[in-house]
Q: What sequence folds into this?
């Protein structure tokens, strides 16, 4: 990456306004937005931002509870209008999830095109999921006329639409109009590899450190992980489970019998929410990343595991099967298949050779395909086009 001390603002730099969530809380899209905003882009463009997380009731706590939707919509709109009167922007860069909040971003784009007359770049963090989740971005959206129409309407106000991977873009090309197809591209989701030490795990016979990074919930497969690891504990495997993240419900997690049993036998360390150098350290010291989620698009956690040289045990959801090769980068099973999840974990616990091979493969994959520099170069082209 470029040396930040060697860059300074220059007259004539394009002005770019980022609109989206910024941490805290530390979620996938917020982390993604912040990485770009604090990257070399700030020395190539004159950047400003509207942080949509600022309207949360308690932004220091990672939670699904946010302020009322209408209030958040109006607050965001007021910030957009405020920026319109204070600045003139060349590019408006907007984040959109694949959930119901897409209608809020759609409304923002309509207003932006009307009052800014700037280029609107939409970065879409979604994909087709099983109906009815994330309507209209559902598997039925590929065949139903109404869903196709709604999807094309949502993307219509943007001058350019960016998808998170080539596979996701290919799925959408089947139903996008000619106009929306022509303005669509993809930039692979990314991680800043320099934040993670180039640390290849050595053969070792001591206790294996297993890392879980994410929300402690059924949707993320946390309780599947507990069940699989408790089975391996009963089989006398030596491991320690490092849990990083916020529980969706304290009682459900900390009163869970499997959790309490593993904790009582010194097999668990709960770190809470981790970020920055503390997160990088925990990942660097780990031996296996366990991420058995039931529902994802392009999870940051997987990219962080690659950058940290960690062998990965995960599930075939979202684009995970697209980016991880079975046996080369990860061991993968169906979501909720606890029996196979246990088998996969056992294979890695038993094989130093397999862990080392995956560790080396994953660091290389991170640098050559998912490093932030690759994304920045493509985004510069988009902003300048």
A:
């Amino acid at each position: 990456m470029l040396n930040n001390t060697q860059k300074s603002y220059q007259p004539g730099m394009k002005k770019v306004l980022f609109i989206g969530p910024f941490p805290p809380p530390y979620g996938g899209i917020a982390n993604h937005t912040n990485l770009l905003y604090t990257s070399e882009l700030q020395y190539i463009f004159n950047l400003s931002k509207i942080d949509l997380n600022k309207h949360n009731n308690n932004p220091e706590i990672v939670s699904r509870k946010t302020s009322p939707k209408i209030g958040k919509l109006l607050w965001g709109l007021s910030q957009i209008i405020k920026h319109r009167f204070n600045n003139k922007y060349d590019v408006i860069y907007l984040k959109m999830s694949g959930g119901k909040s897409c209608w809020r971003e759609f409304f923002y784009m309509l207003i932006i095109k009307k009052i800014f007359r700037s280029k609107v770049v939409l970065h879409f963090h979604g994909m087709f999921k099983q109906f009815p989740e994330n309507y209209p971005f559902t598997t039925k959206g590929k065949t139903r006329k109404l869903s196709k129409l709604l999807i094309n309407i949502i993307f219509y106000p943007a001058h350019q639409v960016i998808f998170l991977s080539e596979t996701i873009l290919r799925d959408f090309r089947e139903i996008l109009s000619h106009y929306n197809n022509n303005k669509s591209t993809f930039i692979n989701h990314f991680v800043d590899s320099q934040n993670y030490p180039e640390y290849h795990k050595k053969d070792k016979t001591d206790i294996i450190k297993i890392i879980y990074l994410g929300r402690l919930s059924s949707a993320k497969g946390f309780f599947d992980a507990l069940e699989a690891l408790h089975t391996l504990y009963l089989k006398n495997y030596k491991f320690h489970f490092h849990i990083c993240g916020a529980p969706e419900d304290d009682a459900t997690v900390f009163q869970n019998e499997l959790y309490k049993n593993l904790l009582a036998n010194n097999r668990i360390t709960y770190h809470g929410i981790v970020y920055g150098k503390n997160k990088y350290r925990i990942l660097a010291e780990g031996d296996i990343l366990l991420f058995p989620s039931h529902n994802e698009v392009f999870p940051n956690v997987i990219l962080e595991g690659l950058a940290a040289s960690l062998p990965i045990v995960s599930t075939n959801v979202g684009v995970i099967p697209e980016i991880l090769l079975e046996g080369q980068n990860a061991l993968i099973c169906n979501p909720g298949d606890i029996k196979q999840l246990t088998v996969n974990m056992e294979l890695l616990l038993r094989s130093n050779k397999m862990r080392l091979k995956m560790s080396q493969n994953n660091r290389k994959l991170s640098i050559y395909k998912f490093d932030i520099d690759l994304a920045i170069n493509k985004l510069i082209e988009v902003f300048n086009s």
Remarks:
- Confidence is low (pLDDT under 50) at residues 1-8, 57-66.
